[in-house]
């Protein structure tokens, strides 16, 4: 017997950005597992070959009830985002849930030594990319009855709530997402469009590897002595939020592993 969550998601089209790894990949898998009978997944990232492998993994695990469309997309490129919806096959355009997950962090430099290219890539991906994706999808939602309906789930961070040394630009981008999300929820109050934010604390993904420019030893040191969250932990919350009754908006979620109490307050085993 299908669960209430599965029934509410049945027949929907879900779009996940940054779906080639980490939280994005786990979110795609969790949607498929939760509602395997009738679901469409549009998975975007820059690594199209990886997305194709994930599509095959989903098919092998849950069967043909979930249709997966892998799409190469760099959200930091405004022209790619602008033409995105029109480039989709007609059967995948009627999107119901947008998960704005694509994002990254580069470096730990402090002002005035932050590289221009790091500033640019973080803002163009984390902020401009998220806003442009939202603006590309919102017209689909607003055409529906009752002023519009659909879900926008933005993946933020504890960094958007608490700034910390060495993370000034990343923290600024996540704070911008938080403000954009809150403003949009107010702007869409007369519709059935739900605007939600999920803010993870410490999660072990490729995040730190990217931050340290591919230095895995430095990345591993971040998690030494800790039990960080997994991408699956965050994915479960994202899918839970999307599968609530339409009148229920889980507007704001902050998720820590047990050893974390704030952005820089963590217990490490010696």
UniProtKB/TrEMBL annotation:
Protein keywords: NADP, Oxidoreductase
InterPro entries: NAD(P)-bd_dom_sf, Sc_DH/Rdtase_CS, SDR_fam
SUPFAM superfamilies associated with the record: NAD(P)-binding Rossmann-fold domains (SSF51735)
Short name of one Pfam family: adh_short
One annotated GO molecular function: oxidoreductase activity, acting on the CH-OH group of donors, NAD or NADP as acceptor
Domain of life: Eukaryota
Alphabetical list of PANTHER family matching this protein: ALCOHOL DEHYDROGENASE (PTHR42901:SF1)
Family: Belongs to the short-chain dehydrogenases/reductases (SDR) family.
Annotated protein name in UniProt: Oxidoreductase
């Amino acid at each position: 017997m299908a669960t209430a969550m599965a029934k509410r998601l049945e027949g929907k089209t879900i779009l996940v950005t940054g779906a080639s790894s980490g939280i994005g990949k786990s979110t795609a898998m969790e949607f498929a597992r939760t509602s395997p009978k009738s679901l469409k997944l549009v998975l975007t990232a820059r690594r199209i070959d990886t997305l194709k492998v994930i599509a095959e993994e989903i098919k092998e695990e849950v069967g043909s009830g979930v249709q997966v469309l892998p799409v190469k997309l760099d959200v930091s490129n405004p022209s790619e985002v602008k033409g995105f919806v029109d480039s989709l096959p007609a059967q995948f355009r009627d999107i119901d849930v947008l998960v704005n997950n694509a994002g990254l962090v580069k470096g730990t430099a402090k002002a005035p030594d932050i590289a221009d290219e790091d500033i640019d890539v973080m803002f163009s991906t984390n902020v401009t990319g998220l806003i442009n994706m939202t603006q590309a999808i919102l017209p689909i939602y607003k055409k529906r009855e009752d002023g519009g309906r659909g879900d926008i789930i933005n993946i933020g961070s504890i960094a958007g709530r608490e700034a910390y040394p060495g993370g000034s630009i990343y923290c600024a981008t996540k704070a911008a997402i938080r403000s954009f999300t809150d403003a949009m929820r107010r702007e869409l109050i007369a519709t059935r469009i739900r605007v939600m934010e999920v803010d993870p604390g410490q999660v072990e993904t490729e995040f730190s590897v990217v931050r340290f420019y591919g230095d895995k030893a430095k990345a591993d040191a971040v998690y030494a002595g800790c039990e960080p969250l997994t991408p699956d932990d965050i994915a479960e919350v994202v899918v839970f939020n999307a599968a609530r009754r339409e009148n229920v908006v889980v507007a704001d979620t902050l998720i820590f592993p047990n050893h974390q109490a704030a952005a820089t307050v963590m217990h490490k085993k010696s």
